[in-house]
Amino acid sequence: MKPFAYAVAEAPVQAVHQLSARPGAKFLGGGTNLVDLMRLGVESPELLVDVTRLELDRIEPTATGGILVGAGVRNSDLAADPRIRAAYPMLSQALLSGASGQLRNMATVGGNLLQRTRCVYFQDVTKPCNKREPGTGCPARTGAHRDLAILGASEHCIATHPSDFAVALAALDARVQITGPAGDRALALADLYRAPDEDPSRDTVLDPADLITAVEIPTSREAHRNSLYRKARDRASYAFAVGSVAAGLSLAPDGTISEVRIALGAVAHKPWRARRAESALTGNPATPEQFRRAAELELAAAEPLPDNAFKVELSQNLIVAALSTLAGVEEA
Amino acid sequence: MTTTDTRSQSTTSTLRLQVNGREHELALDHRTSLLDALREHLGLTGSKKGCDHGQCGACTVLLDGRRVNACLILAVTAVGREITTVEGLADGEDLHPVQQAFIDRDAFQCGYCTPGQICSAVGVLAEARSGWPSAVTPPEGGVQLDEAEVRERMSGNLCRCGAYANIVPAVLDAAAAELPAPGIETAYHEGESR
Amino acid sequence: MTVTKALTGPPLTRDEAIEKVTGKARYAYEYHSQPDTAYAWIVTSPVAKGRVLTVDADHVLRSDDVIAVLWHENAPHLGDVGDPTLAVLQSPEIAYRGQLVALVVAKTPEAAREAAAQLPVEYEELAHDVVLTPDHASLYKPEKVNPAFETDTEQGDPDRAFDASPVQLDQTYSTVALHNNPMEPHATTAIWGENGSLTLYDSNQGGGVVQQLLAGLFELEKSQVHVINPHVGGGFGSKGMPRPNVVLAAMAAKVTGRPVKLAVTRQQMFSLVGYRTPTIQRIRLGAEADGRLNAIMHEVVEQTSTVKEFAEQTAVATRMIYAAPHRRTSHRLARLDVPVPSWMRAPGECPGFYAFESAMDELAVELGVDPVELRIRNEPEVDPETGNPFSSRNLVACLREGARRFGWRSEPRAPRNHREGRWLIGAGVAASFYPTYQMPASATASVDENDHYTVDINATDIGTGARTALHQLAAEALEVPLEQVTVRIGDSDLPAAGIAGGSMGTRSWGWAVTKACRQLREEGAKSVTANTKKDIEALGEYTRGSYGAQFVEVRVNQDTGELRVPRMTGIFAAGRIVNASTARSQFIGGMTMGLSMALHEEGLIDPVFGDYANHDLASYHVAGCADVGALDIGWIEEADEHLGGAGTKGIGEIGIVGTAAAVANAVFDATGVRVRELPIHLEDVLK
Ligand SMILES: Cc1cc2nc3c(=O)[nH]c(=O)nc-3n(C[C@H](O)[C@H](O)[C@H](O)COP(=O)(O)OP(=O)(O)OC[C@H]3O[C@@H](n4cnc5c(N)ncnc54)[C@H](O)[C@@H]3O)c2cc1C
Ligand code: SF4
Ligand code: FES
Ligand code: FES
């Protein structure tokens, strides 16, 4: 770790200013990812601007009936919030399935969204990696890639985004509020993350001095309330997802699907909103066969590698299982 | 308070840390983790370093009563917070109920993960008292600490000696011993026999 | 409380329990934080084979905080102790990625770490080969396998007997590299005294070896080296020998004239402190229709490094576990550009039994007999390898008692037969075995004018409960209450004793302690020192070992393939159990690690870079709290007259032997999928 300066941000605008004034500066949230990466030599900021003492720690209703979550809210507080648990169970469950009790007490909403991939090459500065050092290559393709992407990857990078929380937010159509050098703006969560394409070094569309101030969760609807997050992993707890799904479902009185929301985790550079599956299902009967068909349709675009080919089936099964549970139907 | 250079050039700070009810003034490199501040600067070596990356839980301490991994916290960010380490749990000779339960259940072998397990368990009991759910908490109803709950909640503390099968009952014993404390809901209610 | 000699001793709490739960117990890195203490940081090689050309020490020495940089051109010369892994910084050769190439010493840990990261090192890089294959060109037959067993054995005519057998099984099983990962990383605090003496607070499984080898390396008298290790945060074999950290810390302290602290980082532990070799094991079983074995063949391929040979004794226990007239076992090593493999909990038996006990399960399926019954039918009368009688052998009792307690269905396997919701449920069984070893030790018992007894022995408690067990044995032999006895261990100034390894620690030390205490009592002396060398030599010709049976329930999710183990039963026959509580902890610890091996642990060798790609605890998973269900532990009370000493066998390793097979066998029972490669991943059972 290189020596660095440290400053406590007093207001969002000032924090943004501190970052734009100093290209080597970074915001510090809970530090659970940034400090880790600094210790590995992956990140080496000259200045850390601590944004945890900004008053971004509130969870409050919005005028339109949604919920606004401050970027500094700790993952554990958000997961335990009774409004979130009741109105957006998938969100609480996604948070609780991530990391450990200790880490969730530290991790902030903003930091969680911007945590970086767990690709082992990215984390090892003695090895090449396009994401860490553009142009050096992607050893994961022929190396350890079991945990990496099957959808939307590029020849330059097959990293996955590790956040569970972001998967649920993607399914909920949450929006991210940002204060940047040019002022305030908001982005759909789906538009926050990028595909790796030619430049995997950038995970998101944000400018380095953009401060996430809040996440806005839309007004709760049936497909938010009747929702769940299901995560498959190699340990029963304290492990990143091998595959995951955030799903919400509402049925019309005739039993057909009136609304369905599906996002997949651990399959792409970003939370993967399963729009194809959603549109194939909407208006159709809520049966395991329909779920399977839609899941297969969604995963048809998958381009797996030898060691992660199983994720195609795993993701399909997760979709079918989650929707079957939400619809209250039995799988064969 | 921290005296940080407002132009943000200095890479060290003089700061005060509140640890186990005592205040300490330290001049620290910003890189110093809370864990190293405790271990190398304050001689509080009870908190352990098993990985230095948030991956084992050996460094667990309580920050304003909440369990956290001291290895991923920069000491400079802990200013103004109340830090409790394993050394601060007992009341003189009287062990904390979690400490006693760990002894009674032989919930450790080498002891290296133990301070972290114990601090984590103290945090777990407080979280359960506050009604915080875990990944295995059913959506309806309060929090009832049982084996499945404790296993899930204690998963951020690895024990290579494999004492989990003793740690879980130890935490449950401590939860039962703590019952009179306000607000905690467990599977066992006063007046009921088991 | 007076302890009386019972086959199962009372479940007393650990002597050091309060220290451990209050944070007062000090480990190796926790001794010296004086103003002049320096911190050392290891620099490792990013190339897997080649040599160090130059190190630009000046580049980092510009910092005021950096005190010294050591590398092969300026490091002090070390004496030759015959262990190339300890000849640190003596040559430019690089034999594996992650080998240490330099050491930075600085005033703060932060500065040391950063200087180590920035240190410019130039390398000459050569092509490397790190992938173990069953037909690797470098395969050779080692002279012996660990510690001194015959490499190959053959009895009768196994090929012909196999061919003639009505039921045949021929399968290959493999295990991956496993990393010991004790929670306390290997660490040392080293201080040189003015008189040229060296004090080492070191994390190890035996201070005596450290003392001896460090004396050799630094060309000192043994008495000049003082090794102190009252508490050790686990080792599981990886701290059985001195590791580079202790040599480097001593070197750095010598060069800088300051106390030096050094801890191996978790990441570095994947290359610097040993690991379990991957194995490829071909097993052939030839049986009669009733299940009696005619032929057993167990041929093992494993890896070693180019710097030092380590040959795991993977198939050795196959030589005696079941009866069969025709048998062959063999071990072949591939010499690869990999880190040096070494001991990990039950080296040999652990991977060997995974393969062998999986094969037995497959044979039971093939024959349509209950796997418990199959094992009982092949129970030998005498040791099939040596013809020696068994001092005691209670495998059958363990199997029967375990089956009863577990609720085992005594019938042929019918896989994929039991489900609850989306979960397939299965049960599996495997046998466990671990040989009983012993090493000579000395202990001193003395009494003061207040009738307080002190027992001294350089034993090491790495979490086994040895301190407490020795205390109990001492009180028993002295026939006084525990409170009247103090046991002192973990210091090389105390009478010499062997390491905590091979499950022989408490057995060997307990023997010496018991002997010294009995003599003291009988002779009414003030102080007695006893040594057990002669007693051990006088042991009769028996095959001694601990046995066990493990039963496991597995649940497999039909949607995700996720594997869960809600319960395990382990029944052991391990001689006298000195402390029921700490012994139980040893068994659950072993079984938990066995479960971890079966489902989680996987050292992934990276063919391109040559290292273990997943070198941290987030990517190399060990079982966590939520992975372990209910553990039911029991033992068969065993009075074995041929054990000598305190009548104990060993309990530290047997718990891990067989667990992985029981899990894999249960996975088969649940799913019908036979996984022959560990660990079992969810994708292996995703239909
Ligand atoms: C062992 C381990 C296991 C884990 N397991 C899981 C898991 O299973 N699932 C999961 O989802 N996560 C997991 N995590 C990751 C964890 O959730 C993240 O590290 C955490 O959410 C990051 O939040 P933070 O506040 O600590 O971020 P920091 O580390 O403080 O910051 C992360 C990044 O975000 C930037 N940043 C922080 N706040 C803001 C802001 N307001 N605006 C703009 N930029 C900001 C920082 O500059 C930095 O680049 C695990 C982590 C560890 C160490
Ligand atoms: S997958 Fe992406 S992060 Fe991983 S090595 Fe390739 S470029 Fe780097
Ligand atoms: S040392 Fe902090 S989690 Fe391992
Ligand atoms: S007691 Fe040794 S690691 Fe937990």
TrEMBL record, chain A:
Transmembrane segments: none annotated. PROSITE patterns: FAD_PCMH. Residues 1-222 form the FAD-binding PCMH-type domain. This is Xanthine dehydrogenase family protein subunit M. Keywords: Oxidoreductase. InterPro entries: CO_DH_flav_C, CO_DH_flav_C_dom_sf, Diverse_Substr_Oxidored, FAD-bd_PCMH, FAD-bd_PCMH-like_sf, FAD-bd_PCMH_sub1, FAD-bd_PCMH_sub2, Mopterin_DH_FAD-bd. One of its GO terms (molecular function) is FAD binding. It holds the Pfam family FAD_binding_5. It comes from the Bacteria.
UniProtKB/TrEMBL annotation, chain B:
Gene3D superfamilies: 3.10.20.30, [2Fe-2S]-binding domain. Pfam families: Fer2, Fer2_2. InterPro entries: 2Fe-2S-bd, 2Fe-2S-bd_dom_sf, 2Fe-2S_ferredoxin-like_sf, 2Fe-2S_ferredoxin-type, 2Fe2S_fd_BS, Aldehyde_Oxdr_Iron-Sulfur, Beta-grasp_dom_sf. Transmembrane segments: none annotated. SUPFAM superfamilies: 2Fe-2S ferredoxin-like (SSF54292), CO dehydrogenase ISP C-domain like (SSF47741). Pathway: Alkaloid degradation; nicotine degradation. This is 2Fe-2S iron-sulfur cluster-binding protein.
UniProtKB/TrEMBL annotation, chain C:
Keywords: Molybdenum, Oxidoreductase. GO terms for molecular function: iron ion binding; oxidoreductase activity. Transmembrane segments: none annotated. This is Xanthine dehydrogenase family protein molybdopterin-binding subunit. Gene3D superfamilies: Aldehyde oxidase/xanthine dehydrogenase, a/b hammerhead, Aldehyde oxidase/xanthine dehydrogenase, molybdopterin binding domain. Residues 22-127 form the Aldehyde oxidase/xanthine dehydrogenase a/b hammerhead domain. It comes from Kineosporia babensis. It comes from the Bacteria. InterPro entries: Ald_Oxase/Xan_DH_a/b (IPR000674), Ald_Oxase/Xan_DH_a/b_sf (IPR036856), Ald_Oxase/xanthine_DH-like (IPR016208), AldOxase/xan_DH_MoCoBD1 (IPR008274), AldOxase/xan_DH_MoCoBD2 (IPR046867), AldOxase/xan_DH_Mopterin-bd_sf (IPR037165). It holds the Pfam family MoCoBD_1.
